[in-house]
Amino acid sequence: MFSNFKPTWMVDAIYKITPEQLQTHGIKAVLTDLDNTLIAWNNPEGTIELQQWLLTLKKAGIPVIVVSNNNEERVRYAVERFDIDFVARALKPLGKGIREGVRRLNLSKDEVVMVGDQIMTDVRAANRVGVRSILVKPIIDTDSWKTQFNRLCERQIMRYLQKKNPEMVWQGEIT
């Protein structure tokens, strides 16, 4: 019933995903959500840990594109200091933004992964397009008012998915 919301992997934090893990699975590029995945929704400055993670991926030749439902001005302001590409107004859970990201990378869907903190938007959109997904825990425990309703629904969906799929547990890496 909720299989469209099932992530490929569940990792504690985006910063624990390494180039070696990605390469082991044939992944050549990362699409990622912005708020509460890369940065706290209420702090667009990011962290040193984020800067180091992005630099590590860049050195490994793994491009990153932010795919966000936010407007262009908000996303540009948040990512310009990191010198990464983005797709704004992605319309997740529809696949528009993810398809655009894959197109810009000029890679096959099998060579790309979508990372996000929400199963109702990030994971659902990835599954809709046929891109593997990594669900990460939100960076902070609070959400913008627009996300709070989704979180309530997600708890129900996660309980169902984990009951049907006992292998769905939080990991420290992609296995």
From TrEMBL:
Name this polypeptide is given: HAD phosphatase, family IIIA
Which residue ranges traverse the bilayer? Answer: none
Under Pfam families, the record lists:
Hydrolase (PF00702)
- Classify the source by domain of life: Bacteria
Q: Which GO terms describe its molecular function?
A: phosphatidylglycerophosphatase activity
SUPFAM superfamilies, A to Z: HAD-like
